[in-house]
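Structure tokens please, single chain.
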Amino acid sequence: MNIFAVLRFLHIVAGIIWAGGGLLMYFVFAPAIAATGDAGKQYAGYLITKTPFTKIMLVAGVTTVAAGSWLYGIDSSWFQSNWMMTGQGTVFGMGGMFGIAALVFGFMVGNVNSRLAMLGGQIQGKPTAEQAAELGALAKRQAWVSKANAWCIIVAVVMMASARFFA
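Here you go.
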């Protein structure tokens, strides 16, 4: 088996796990968590702190981006060929940029979720004014980075899936 086949396998399988987990979280779990009040917050806290979900997402995201970058390097003769200016090379490159952006937004989502979990553990009963203000700020940040993450994943997946048609 050659390195290209191994990298492509890793890129596709890790990408499915990463994109599937991220989109499931954004479109299904997050709305359910928000709609179920304290029970949803308990579930979210458990999911983030007691399961391997965040580690799986981290490994899958980094693997997807690393393998994809290496594949693009192979296809482009390490970023030196005219292939990068073809339709296929351009679409793969733009898809890769959206994938890298999704990874950055994913790190931001993880940081916000960790901070929310830590703050949630500190709150006993009703939150203080400071805690409520911090919760509000974190919720706003989480809303936009989660949305940006989800849409970057969608665009990256569409571009990766369709790039071969732009030859």
